[in-house]
Amino acid sequence: MDKEEIMAKVVAVVVDKLNVSAQEVLPTAHFVNNLGADSLDQVELVMELEREFDVQIKDDEATHLQTVGSVVDYLEKTLPKRKD
Amino acid sequence: MSSTRVVVTGLGALTPIGNNVKAYWDGLVSGQSGAALITRFDTTKHKTKFACTLKGYDPRNHLDAKDVRRMDPFAQYAMVAGDEAIQDAGLITPLVDKERVGVVWGSGIGGLGTTESTVLGFAASGMDPKINPFFIPKIIPDIPSGYLSIKYGFKGPNFATVAACASAVNAIVTASQLIKLGNADVVVAGGSEAPIIQIGIAGFNALKALSQRNKDYLTASRPFDQTRDGFVMGEGAGALILESYTHAQKRNAKIYAELVGVGMSADAHHITAPDKGGVILALQRSLTSAQIRPDSIDYINAHGTSTPLGDLNEVEAIQHVFGAHAYKLNISSTKSMTGHLLGAAGAIESIATVLALLHQVVPPTINHKILDEAIDPRINLTLNNAVKRTISFAQNNAFGFGGHNVSIVFKKWEDS
Questions:
Q1: Least confident of A56-60, B14-18, B84-88, B348-352
Q2: Is B416 contained in some domain?
Q3: Interchain CB contact of A46 with B (< 8 Å)
Q4: A43/B130 Cβ within 8 A
């Protein structure tokens, strides 16, 4: 999966879970500060990303995923490894 | 308890016969049945295939998409009725100190539908412990009071009352006590329930509590009728704004009625079977608390669920408490129209009681054909049609599994 595909899927998940428009979901967008997420939304978001991308995100890794861009970078790094 | 007077200054309702207070009252006085066949799930295996469902209600007209997802329907209903009551009372004004506004909300079972779907998903996943983080906050019965406080910034006392089908009247009682104790100036009190789901219908059918009159569902809720065969489940919410009289007067609020008496008791008898002794105590205590004689009551909005045992038990308790006056007052069960909203029942029925006082009209007991031979025919059950009469004091009863009884007395408001 290339970065563009990952981004598109992440945007779809974020739009659905946080009830925001796709235009707001920029790589720099911060889940709490820009997209109105609270701590429960963040837990739900991580669970949904795990389901969507079939990955396991550890709690200590999840705490660093505060922006859309950080999620995409994380997934880009993680996904190919799983395929090896 | 202090001499603080407690008045009703706002109402909100979401019911199977009307999605706001006006539509609800119109439905009550015109004798509308709220029953419908259940279409939200396959009822093939269920003994009961109908309920008093909400009609033309879409949560997206009231809440944003995120809140709809985060709230179980019982909490959504609370927001709809709560909003209407808060607007009606004009509480959003500098004249009301939000830190002195409480919320006490009743629900019998909370988010049962969310419990059902989450547990099914949990089982299907091989019990994968990754549960949606909103599961617990969606099912806890106290979450509507939390959501209402968050939406409006109300920082007074805030919690839920749970007493099965007596939950909402207990919320009203507790709200009035908080005002009398000086803990709040205003309390949003009410109840909501969303039990029309598969395990709700199956669970109450297992108790043999529900009507199974599938072929004649529109008239199945027939309290006091010889042929009644159980209650008809309902869903929705009711909200009342209770306020200290001096506070209401100071801000020149519209006043619907005064809450003058409250009575509570336990049967100490059986978890589901009713007992006359406990009901009698609750009725008597509400009259004592109101400092009125039994013959002051003109109208009783009965618990009257349309179950064989419960209705007779209540009528006999009324005869015991009121003696010969039992034949002079009007009794009705508005559950004949709305069905039984369980933990929310007492809220919408308190609204019916308050509006009966306001309009001087008794809403009827509909669907009645044959009087139960065990019920004294001199009892006036306000059969089939609403009647106009002078109502100075009206009583509302609610009883719940566990043997909880609660009865409250409202007085007609007259500017003095």
A1: A56-60
A2: no
A3: no
A4: no
| Structural domain harbouring B380 | 261-410
Structure tokens at B93: 């004004």
In a domain, B1, yes or no: no
Is the pTM higher than 0.80? The answer reads yes
In the predicted model, is pLDDT for residue B228 greater than 70? Answer: yes
| A-chain residues near B130 (CB < 8 A) | 47, 50
Residue of A13, A15, A19 to mutate for B, most B C-beta atoms under 10 A: A19
Cross-chain CB nearest to B134 (options A19, A44, A50): A44
Instruction: Describe chain B by its helix, strand, coil percentages, rounded to 5.
Output: 40, 25, 40
N- to C-terminal Cα separation, chain B: 23
Q: Which residues of B320-356 are buried (b: 16+ CB within 10 A; e: fewer)?
A: ebbeebbeebbbbbbbbbbbbbbbbbbbbbbbbbbbb
Whether B162 is covered by a domain: the verdict is: yes
Phi, psi of B166, deg, nearest 5? -105, 10
Domain ranges, residue A20: 3-83
Statement to judge: residues B289 and B187 lie in one domain? no
Q: Do B133 and A40 touch (CB under 8 A)?
A: yes
CATH number, domain at A55? 1.10.1200.10
Instruction: For residues B101 and B138, state if they share a domain.
Output: yes
Residues B195 and B283 in one domain: no
Please tell me the distance in Å from B76's CA to the nearest CA on chain A: 17
B391 has pLDDT over 70: yes
What mean pLDDT do residues B181-194 have? 98
Task: Report how many domains make up chain A.
Answer: 1
Q: Which residues of chain B make contact with A19, given a CB cutoff of 8 A?
A: 64-66, 69
Is the interface score ipTM higher than 0.90? no
B98 in a structural domain: yes
Residue A38 falls in the annotated catalytic set: yes
Q: What is the pLDDT of residues B285-340, one digit of tens each?
A: 999 999 999 999 999 999 999 999 999 999 999 999 999 999 999 999 999 999 99
